[in-house]
């Protein structure tokens, strides 16, 4: 999924290195001497008959001689050290900046990478042979920071509810078409693999087809769905599912909701009512990863009405460039719990920043 960005980063690092090599002046050139003991060739044994004691004595002396006669070989190597000035950095960073922007990395993220690289590379002596590795290392560190949002431990939350002998309630919210319903089924399936017993609540009562869609996803995931075609009250569907889960010993209720759009006050008020009455243990916002840095608008929109605990980033498989994904993680400033990589029930993965940094070739 990060193919484009990976290649672009690789060539941008190479260009960066080349420019430093060619354009940055040498601040120091010194010769180093390397001491290297050279072992004397073993003397060919002469065919003579000796007493055992004599042989041992000779052997001892031979070793002594080798040690004493070791000599120091001088190897001289030129070590070139360079220092990048602020002005030079601005010029050299341009290729990398273009590569990042071309791949949908938001300006805010590009600026963060720039500041991080400056801090690591500016006005510091860098050995010529280490330029590429130092640039790569600085970039890796920066991306690791970008990809490390705050944490939220969903399993711990589920376990806490379990200890209290009640099902954990996970509320799934998000904009229209972001992938909520499919993510509900994927998440329930993932939790089932973890040996929990989940049940789905079809609380998208705004669209009749929405609830039926979840019933179908439930069949694919082999997870029961509570669906009440007679009601428009999403709050009561979740309430009834929790009641059913308690009586039938389900561990987790994953509740789907109707898609919200900006400024849709009625639907936001309905969400507030759902959380007030059903008191979810975790509220997860589903965001299409192609939204990029605009994720912040969605997070704010929901967060000011109900507390968002974390994000599920969907359609990562469609984001060929990968930059929008990076931007969404960085600007969202919320824990990213899962990434969804396709339309199958199994196309869900726990968010793993180290894996992504590796996929980016760093
Ligand atoms: N490629 C890809 N498609 C996805 C992914 N997640 C969801 N989709 C597709 O996106 C479309 C919308 O998914 P839904 O789950 O219906 O989205 P929703 O948020 O419930 O939509 P509404 O209920 O209408 O608000 C469907 O065609 C899904 O198959 C994903 O990770 N990758
Ligand atoms: Mg839906």
Feature tags:
3 domains; alpha/beta; binds magnesium ion; Rossmann fold; binds guanosine-5'-triphosphate; 17% strand; Four Helix Bundle (Hemerythrin (Met), subunit A); 362 residues; 11 strands; eight-stranded mixed beta sheet; single chain; elongated; three-stranded antiparallel beta sheet
CATH class of the largest domain: Alpha Beta
Query: What's the CATH H-level homologous superfamily of the largest domain?
Result: P-loop containing nucleotide triphosphate hydrolases
Low-confidence stretches: 66-72
Work out the count of structural domains.
3
What is the annotated CATH architecture of the largest domain?
Answer: 3-Layer(aba) Sandwich
Cross-sheet strand order for the largest sheet:
6-5-7-4-8-9-10-11
Beta-strand segment tally: 11
Unique ligands: guanosine-5'-triphosphate, magnesium ion
What's the rounded overall pLDDT mean? Answer: 87
**Radius of gyration of CA atoms, rounded to a whole number:** 31 Å
Structural class based on helices, strands and sheet pairing: alpha/beta
Task: State the helical fraction.
Answer: 40-55%
Q: What overall geometry do the principal axes of the alpha carbons give? A: elongated
Largest sheet, if any?
8 strands, mixed
Q: What does this entry show, briefly?
A:
The chain contains 13 helices and eleven strands.
């Amino acid at each position: 999924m990060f193919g484009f960005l990976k290649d672009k980063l690789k060539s941008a690092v190479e260009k960066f290195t080349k420019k430093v090599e060619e354009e940055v002046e040498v601040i120091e050139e010194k010769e180093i001497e390397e001491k290297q003991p050279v072992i004397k060739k073993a003397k060919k044994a002469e065919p003579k008959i000796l007493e055992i004691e004599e042989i041992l004595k000779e052997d001892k002396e031979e070793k002594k001689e080798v040690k004493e006669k070791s000599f120091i070989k001088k190897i001289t190597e030129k070590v070139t050290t360079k220092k990048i000035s602020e002005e030079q950095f601005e010029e050299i960073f341009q290729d990398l900046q273009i590569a990042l922007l071309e791949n949908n990395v938001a300006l805010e993220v590009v600026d963060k990478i720039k500041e991080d690289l400056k801090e690591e590379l500016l006005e510091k002596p860098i050995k010529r042979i280490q330029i590429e590795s130092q640039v790569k290392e600085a970039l890796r560190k920066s991306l690791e920071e970008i990809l490390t949002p705050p944490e939220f431990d969903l399993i711990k939350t589920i376990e806490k509810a379990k200890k209290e002998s009640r099902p954990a309630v996970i509320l799934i919210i998000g904009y229209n078409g972001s992938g909520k319903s499919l993510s509900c089924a994927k998440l329930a399936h993932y939790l089932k693999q973890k040996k929990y017993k989940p049940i789905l609540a079809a609380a998208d009562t705004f669209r009749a087809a929405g609830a039926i869609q979840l019933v179908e996803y439930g069949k694919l995931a082999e997870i029961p769905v509570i669906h009440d075609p007679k009601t428009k009250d999403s709050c009561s569907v979740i309430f009834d599912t929790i009641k059913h889960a308690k009586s039938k010993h389900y561990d987790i209720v994953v509740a789907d909701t109707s898609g919200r759009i900006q400024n849709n006050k009625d639907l936001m008020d309905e969400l507030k009512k759902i959380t007030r009455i059903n008191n979810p243990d975790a509220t997860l916002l589903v965001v299409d990863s192609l939204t990029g840095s605009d994720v912040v608008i969605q997070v704010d929109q929901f967060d000011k009405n109900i507390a968002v605990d974390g994000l599920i980033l969907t359609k990562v498989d469609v984001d060929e460039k990968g930059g929008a994904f990076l931007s969404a993680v960085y600007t969202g400033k919320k824990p990213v719990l899962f990434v969804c990589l396709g339309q199958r029930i199994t196309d869900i993965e726990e968010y793993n920043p180290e894996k992504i940094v590796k996929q980016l070739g760093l």
